[in-house]
Amino acid sequence: MRSLYKILAVACLVLGFAACDNEQLTGESIFVDPVIDTTTYTYQFDKWLDKYYTEPYNVEFLYKLDDNATDPNYNVVPVSIGMADTLAHLALYLWYDVYDSVVGPEFLPTYGPKMIQLIGSSMMDPVNNTEKLGYAEGGIKITLLKINKMQLNNIDNLNEYIFKTMHHEFAHILHQQRNYPTEFAQITPANYDPIKWQERTYKEAWQLGCVSNYGSSEAREDFVEVIANYIVKPDAWWDNMLKEAGAEGAAIINQKWDICNTWLKEKWEIDLDELRNEVQERQKNLDWNMIMNLEFLNGK
Amino acid sequence: MKAKYLVIIALLAATFAACSRDEESLFDKPAAIRAQEAITNAFDVLTSNETGWEMAYFPNLEASAKGYNMVLKFSKNGNVSVTAKNSATTNNKIMTDSASTWAVKSDYGPILTFDTYNDVFHAFSDPKEDGAGHLGDYEFLILKATPELVLLKGKKHSAYTVMRPMKNTDLAAYFTACEKMQSKLFGNNNIVTLTQGGKKMYLYNGAEGQFQSAAYGSPLVAEAATYHPVCSTEDGIIVSMGFGEDVHDHIFYYDSINGELKSEQGAVMNAGNLNVLFGAYFTDNALGWAVDYAGQEAVEELLSAVNTAMKNTSAKMKVMGYGYKQSLNMYEGGYFLLINFTYKQGKKNQEKKLVWTVDLTQNESGIAVANAVPYDNNTETFLEQIPAAQAVADLMLGSYSAASLEGNLFNAAAGMKLVGEKELVVRGANNIKM
Question: How many CB atoms lie within 10 A of CB A20?
Fold first, then answer.
């Protein structure tokens, strides 16, 4: 009798659960992408991105904008296909191929971002008078902004808005994976102002021991600004900065540079000067035909 | 033993309870399948129309928002071509960009996205230097997708945008036709009475992409107006938000025979009751009616008499000719009749501005103007010299019923007839100065 109860009880439970399974899940995806086959408008570019980014570097190059992937507090627009194409070539020339040459071909596939997102406009904050040009998330994703406004024949514009942002965000990706030294934040903690940094001029920031006014906002921005500015700005700019900073400001900047340099060497085996020389040499030679034809890859 | 029975009963109850969710579904297919079908349907609808789509684009719900015409062609390969012509983004030239992409994707519903930059389309969503620009959307929730109509709602800024199949294959002709409709319906101080679901309101002061509204029968005071974005099309107008609380009559077709706009849901825009409209046109900010006596025999006789009287009463005044303007307007809550006599004294052109107060009553069934009383000393003095001038003011007095002038139901500047014992023509006038 006891076993009969058990059988009945089990039967009831089985029936109970069986009653719940009458809705079949199908294998069909709810997502339909109309642009996935070889006949799509962007097929050639997508194939190119696959060949030069996804295959060698394991990175997804996101140029078609999904508004959900942006900060809803800002109004933005997508990048144009033409500018995305140009930026993709430029990033290979001034970033990916540089690290391949200087640090080694395994470096970026291992530690580089897994996603690069392009956005056509910047993120303007008219209330605080700030403009966001890029951001790095979770050590895996870099977003580059204002790509539609690239002035291809204006090296200063490219330097300030594109090249510097690239190296700035990549430095974030690196320290998001291996922390930067805590002593860095202790050098000028009282000078950081995350709210009103934009009211400082560059010269004021230099005199406070920061390489840019944005660098004077907080320590982690200061850290990557030292690296990014050092990489992309020419000698004359750097020397002028140290001069204008005054003895005290220059000493602080040099102290910060030493920490960045040591951290890159010890944590990442990157020679900052070697990296800088390579970038600067390439920046001097912005031959668009050469870049768009990938001649710098030498058939790689 | 009892406990065991209880256990079995409880388990049986649970067993059958587990089946209670086996109710008939409200939908015939699972949600995932329905979502996929909605996306596929939208994609098919948008790409199956070879002549493209006319889009009435509304960037946002702000008071300053306007409506803009665009023409779009969606290709199956994900390419989209966008053409527009407006003063805000294309400098009033026809501009096309065919080098960008679109897609239908799933989010919290099927979404139409323009996911790479298009010079024409994204000009409305580009944040510019102020971080806002025109505050337009480039991702839209697809609310409806049929071969006849696609209804979209901006994902971020929430304005409704409407697409219909293009009928005109000549883009230049299309934009010209839209502009003509714009000036026909909203140019020159047009006022439209919207009747929708038993409610009425005025729409007026239409400019490119926008018009104002005011409560029915109330003065058309600009400060109190609500702004509405509008797109004029070849066959009427399209609005983003509709005018009812729950009613969204987006499309109004122009009926050239009756000179009115009608929505499929039964809303009508036309001149409405002209007796009421006559009253609404009086405002403190100097909107009024100019009375047109030109060519009327009685007026000519009166003016001749006034002229003679002027010659006789002043030795110094040598009247060479005359003209006059007469207008009815409201000032500080009262109604006034203004008559400007212009005449020649020697070689000099002179002007005499005379003002009377009048009693004006107006309702749905008619208009009555009575008791023209001299308002100021200037008028009284003139009337003492030339009593015949009072008769010109008295010409306005009487009971009337307003009627439309042939050919234009909407246009206050074109005017209306006041029909009574005599028939007057009045035309909407701005800046009537006391």
Answer: 11
